[in-house]
Amino acid sequence: MPGLLKISFKKALITPFILVFLCSIGTILWLQKKHYDDLALEISEKQLTSLSYNVIQSLDIYLERPMAVADALAHAIEYHQLYSANDALAIEDYLLSSFKSLHTEFSQIDLLGFGGELGEFLAIRNAKSIHTPNGYSLMVKDANTSEQLNVYQGENRQSRVIDTIKPYDPRLRPWYQPVKENPVAMWSKLYANADADQEVTISALAPVFSSDGDIRTFVGVAAVDVQIDTFSLFLNELKHAHNAQVFIIDNQRQLIAQADDESILDANGQRLSMADSSHPALTFLAQTLDNTELTEPHLFAFPYQGDTLYVMVSPYQTNTNLSWYVVVSISTHALLGDIPMISNQTLIAGLILGGLGLLVGIVIINRLILPMSETAEAAKQISNGSWDYPLPKNNRIKEISLLVESFSSMRSHLQASFHTLREQLTRDNLTKLYSRQGFIETCNAMKSDSGCMMLLGVNQFRDINDSLGHHQGDILLSVIAERLKAWVLLENGVLGRVAGDEFAIYLPDVQPEQQLCYQHRIRQIFNAPFVLQGEPLMLQVSIGIAPITEEDTTDTTLRNAGIAHSHAKFDCQRCCIYTPDMAESSKKKTRLLSTLRNAIDNNKFEVYFQPIIELGSGQTLGAEALLRLRDDEGRFISPLDFIPIAEGSGLISSIGRIMAEKSLETVVNAIKQRRLPAHFQLHINVSVIELASASYVDELSELLKCAGFPARQLTVEVTESRLADNDPITLGNLSKIRALGVNIAIDDFGTGYSSLAYLHKLPFNSLKVDKAFVDRLTPDNAEQSVVAAITKLSSSFGFTLVAEGIETPLQAKLVHELGCHHAQGYLYGRPAPLEQWPQLVATAKMKNLVGTK
Ligand code: C2E
Ligand code: CA
Ligand code: CA
Fold first, then answer.
1. Rounded mean pLDDT of the chain?
2. For a disulfide at 819, which of 193, 362, 739, 791, Cβ 3.0-4.6 Å?
């Protein structure tokens, strides 16, 4: 099918494999990636939630105790009435004993202190850092310390003062005022210590009252310092246990603690904001979170350095005014460890294996398909005529082997049939010579551009077939073939029978000037009689010769020889050499032939009638019917042009019948209508070809019967020159026509090779003297003219004479005086349709009168 895209079998087989492979791989990759992402998200959420919970729990514990301690401290001072203005000694003992018992258990508690309304301050703290012998350091400011804060190396006032801060007023410290303003337990803001270490600290604060009966007076603030740094240690442990980063930030988005050794302070001692942190999770959050407070944990995921970071932010709130956030972040790698890598490796291994499998599959398919492709190629080559194209060798696969074997045997059978077919096509069965096809192929193979082509046809072969039968005809053709073959072989030529009785001869070595000599040689071949059924038979042949030229193909040359042969046959010249104008006339013939066929099929013939006059009376005796045919433009084509073509093509019988029918019908009708006299004579022209047909007389008699026209009023005109062939059927037919009562006129008498001796054999009753003789008549030569001789002949033989082509009154007078009684010619009337006749007949009468004057 044209236009349909064709793909090879191999591609058709392999492509689906590859497509399925690629689709599977794609789906697996996609599924794995999706699965992996879902898994990571799920695990990260669980992990981070549990971590956050852990941190929040720990924070609770971590911060709960200091707050309880502060509360207990405030309560104890009030309950035991430890406070006395500007004297801290009573509280000092209590603080020291409490701190000692608490400190070892709750390492986060760094300091227990009391700041009073009168500006006194007392604190005991853990001070390993400042190299105290037992680790406790007392800080006192009261009336005894003269307005300054003394820091002792030990736990009592007897030890060395290692530092003094002056002036120092606890009421001005950031942790004091809020409690004073709102005397409830609360957390201070985060602040850096006043001493040199600048540790980030947060204090659990509780208001201290002194009660006197029912009256409670606010006297100061109990403070428990918690060093947030110590919480970082806890976070660090978590980080190492879970591979996660943990941060605590306040609602100002500033760092409180982180599981890291890095400080949460910047170079100026200010706490880092999330945005300034070096941790990606925090910088991400700085960009992502707005300032609204989060009440629920939130999970975020974002890509970071080829990995995904999951971040969970959970709020941490206490009823003691803390509002912080716990931030936990973990990377996929930390979360899933080597799982992705292992699964990637598995996938790659799978891919490699799959690819290998595909490759092996393709190789196997290739090997399987190869013999089929080779067989297909062989089939293609065979269709181009290469029968010997090699077929694939034996194959191990049963089906393929079977296919190849079957194909091979099919090829053998096909080759044999093909040879037989070619033999039939290229050889003529009867003579064993080349057929037309074989002849052309052989000539083509010789590729010669010189020499000549001859086309030889046996004249009247149809008659031989008709008279002796087809079997004898075949024998004759075989004998002719044998004679020609013997000669053509000697001449290195090619011989073929190209049609029923036509032989083509190609003589490569013959020069154009030698052609006639060869033609002579052929005649010699046919000079010896052929013996059929013991009877000798002389054959005549027509020969058409065409020279071989470089431009013309064998086909064209053969056609040219055929055209020359038609000319030779038609013109009875026996031999013709092709000239280009023959092709032109042959084309004209072809056109005319198609016009004739069309005219027969569509009833386009017209019949004109030309009056025949009795010269003595001027009466119209009858008329000659003449056939008229127009071309496509409506112009008349002369019967002299189309009758010979009709005769050569076998159409003449149909045309003759049409003509006879029409003219009989027209005349019979006109007689019935009394437009013509009842004894009106009708002349029709009949071709010798029609006369040679065995059935002609029966058909004529049938026509007469049908038309109801008397036989004696019909004359059949036969051209004399064409009758010379002495054909027994023709002669027999003429006698039968006479026997019917129909008259016979010899037409154009004097133009042929008329032999008077032959003439008397013909059963005719009138002669038509050709116009050529009438034209030559003058008053001076009339007596010695051919017309005069014929007139004498007619009176002794007893037939009538019709002078044709009378154009002048003088001619009419002369022929009449010579004894010719009937005439026909333009003088009396041109051939015309019968409807135009009454007037013509009248004119004829008048002219005749003028002529006889
Ligand atoms: P023909 O039978 O000899 O017919 C007479 C021819 O001479 C006619 O030519 C006619 O028109 C022409 N003719 C008659 N009087 C004169 C004249 O005074 N001067 C001149 N110059 N010509 C005259 P047309 O019709 O062209 O026919 C030519 C030939 O064609 C006929 O010759 C006849 O042989 C043949 N033909 C015509 N009709 C038929 C037909 O129906 N069947 C057959 N087989 N042949 C026919
Ligand atoms: Ca005639
Ligand atoms: Ca004539």
1. 86
2. 791
